[in-house]
From TrEMBL:
Belongs to the peptidase M17 family. It catalyses: Release of an N-terminal amino acid, Xaa-|-Yaa-, in which Xaa is preferably Leu, but may be other amino acids including Pro although not Arg or Lys, and Yaa may be Pro. Amino acid amides and methyl esters are also readily hydrolyzed, but rates on arylamides are exceedingly low; Release of an N-terminal amino acid, preferentially leucine, but not glutamic or aspartic acids. Residues 335-342 form the Cytosol aminopeptidase domain. HAMAP family: Cytosol_peptidase_M17. Pfam families: Peptidase_M17, Peptidase_M17_N. This is Probable cytosol aminopeptidase. Mn(2+) 1 binds at D260, D337, E339. The keyword Protease applies. The active site is at K267, R341. Residues 484-511 are annotated as: Disordered. It comes from Variovorax paradoxus B4.
Length: 511
């Protein structure tokens, strides 16, 4: 969808050519005296347009308005969450008439946050997946809105926020695209090809490693998950170089299981089709790089995507197998359906070579996180308070929220193994936390956070599809680092490494 920012009042918007005019109306009084503003004021006074965000009033051919249809949408206090509610409701109502051109104007003064939220919400509400639909080749069944003009009182004041939001939408929609593709249209090889396309963007480079390179690196845990599939694994390395060479990068690690059967620990058949979404962490990394390539911020970012299928054949890993990770730690695989952590742990070890300022992994990791937080907030795990605060603030800013959960050492007790340095699962209790504790073992050399997006990466039911989350959160976090100067640190913060299993290995070698 093509977005345009334009200086418009309600009166001037009434004269704009469009199929639908959407007016976002806050709770503050309107002072303008033009016919449409007067109509809005009288509608509010009559109670036909309540102040509650998301309430609508549809008008047909109102006097002195060029557009045949007008939708008045309440946005209450005008804060981002209220703007999102109003825009989503209005665009959904407008879609019923299949408009091609839409004008969306703020009736009151809007700041950059409100504008960014309006852009994201309009794109989200109008998005339609078409790749594997036959009618899409004929131009049918897709997104009807081709052009959206966003009207504000002062374009200069919100122009930068608008441009960043538009780029973020490109990233979100790339993440949605690959998240929505079925497993036969999104193999590790095809996902790697999508990453290579991003390498054509300014300042972005892409490298793809295959099974031989992964074996040489000693990524035995990652390789073990992939060995049951006919599809070869891929390890994707993306680099965005927007800052000085000595600037420590932020490393994003995305889980890229392009289809997850559960392996020998087979999942129930019901809703197994949704396991195509198990690569949404990887998709969010690709989407973030798409946005970075358009915004061109002064920051260095590395993206790591371990990608494979978790399938069954005679070579698939079995419960009780012991694998050796790139870090040297051995892992007892008690449940082959806890495979995401097995590929992420090797990627986290690989991340160490970049001497990162921070490492954030993003994964559809546990059903336990869905139980805890539902589909509203992603789970956030980190032992670094400043990183937690920054990610939570970015979530609020982008309306892509997360919630911090604990990482007490006691939660790791269930991961103890009689046959390896660590088991890949603990009991049912606190499953999202014990999964994070497993990953934490491999992130002892750097500032690290884990985002469990199992509840937020996609929707089920009638609205089934990828959400593109948490691209908005990640882009907001990276842009804030750029603005506050944190991105320019040349020396990463060192964290004392506590490597479980080392003492046991030394003891064995001494025997």
């Amino acid at each position: 969808m093509d977005f345009q920012l334009k200086t418009l009042t309600v009166a001037r918007a009434a004269a704009e050519k469009s199929d639908v005019l959407i007016v976002l109306v806050g709770s503050a009084p309107l002072t303008a005296k033009d016919p449409l503003s007067a109509l809005i004021a009288s509608s509010r006074k009559a109670g036909d347009l309540p102040d509650k965000a998301g309430k609508l009033l549809a008008l047909y051919h109102p006097d002195e308005v060029v557009a045949s249809r007008v939708v008045l949408a309440a946005i209450g206090d005008g804060k981002p969450a209220s703007v999102r509610s109003g825009v989503i409701a209005a665009v959904n109502a407008a879609k019923a008439h299949a408009p091609k051109r839409v004008v969306l104007v703020f009736a009151h003064e809007a700041d950059g946050k409100a504008v960014a939220c309006a852009v994201a919400a309009a794109a989200d509400a109008s998005y339609v997946y078409t790749t594997t639909k036959s009618k899409a080749s004929n131009g049918e069944g897709g997104r009807s809105i081709r052009h959206l003009t966003l009207g504000v009182a002062d374009t200069a004041a919100v122009g930068k926020a608008f441009d960043e939001a538009r780029a973020t939408v490109s990233g979100v929609e790339l993440a949605k695209e690959w998240g929505n593709r079925p497993g036969n249209y999104c193999t590790p090889t095809l996902l790697a090809e999508a990453a290579k396309e991003l390498g054509k963007l300014p300042r972005v480079k892409c490298e793809v490693l295959g099974p031989k390179e992964v074996h040489k690196l000693g990524m035995g845990s990652f390789a073990a998950v992939a060995q049951g599939s006919a599809e070869p694994l891929r390890f994707i390395v993306l680099r965005y170089q927007g800052g000085p060479k000595d600037q420590a990068p932020v490393v994003l690690v995305g889980k890229g299981i392009t289809f997850d059967t559960g392996g020998v620990s087979l999942k129930p058949a019901a809703e197994m089709d949704e396991m195509k979404f198990d690569m949404c962490g990887a998709a969010s990394v690709l989407g973030t790089f798409r946005a970075l390539g358009e915004i061109q911020p002064a920051i260095n970012v590395v993206g790591l995507v371990p990608s494979c299928e978790n399938m069954n054949d005679g070579r698939a890993i079995k419960p009780g197998d012991v694998v050796t990770s790139m870090s040297g730690q051995t892992i007892e695989v008690l449940n082959t359906d806890a495979e995401g952590r097995l590929i992420l742990c090797d990627a986290l070890t690989y991340a160490k070579r970049f001497e990162p300022a921070a490492v954030i992994d993003i994964a559809t990791l546990t059903g336990a996180c869905v139980v805890a937080l539902g589909g509203v907030r992603s789970g956030l795990f980190t032992s670094d308070d400043s990183l937690a605060e920054a990610l939570q603030a970015a979530g609020e800013e982008s309306q892509d929220r997360c919630w911090r959960l604990p990482l007490d050492d006691e939660y790791a007790e269930g991961l103890k193994s009689n046959f390896a340095d660590v088991a890949n699962v603990a009991g049912r209790a606190g499953g999202a936390i014990t999964a994070a504790k497993f990953l934490q073992r491999f992130a002892g050399d750097f500032v690290w956070a884990h985002l469990d997006i199992a509840g937020t990466a996609w929707k089920s039911g009638a609205a089934k599809g990828s959400t593109g989350r948490p691209v908005g959160l990640l882009v907001s976090y990276l842009m804030e680092r750029t603005r506050n100067g944190a991105a320019h640190a040349a020396s990463p913060k060192k964290v004392a490494r506590k490597e479980p299993g080392t003492a046991a290995r030394k003891a064995r070698s001494a025997q």
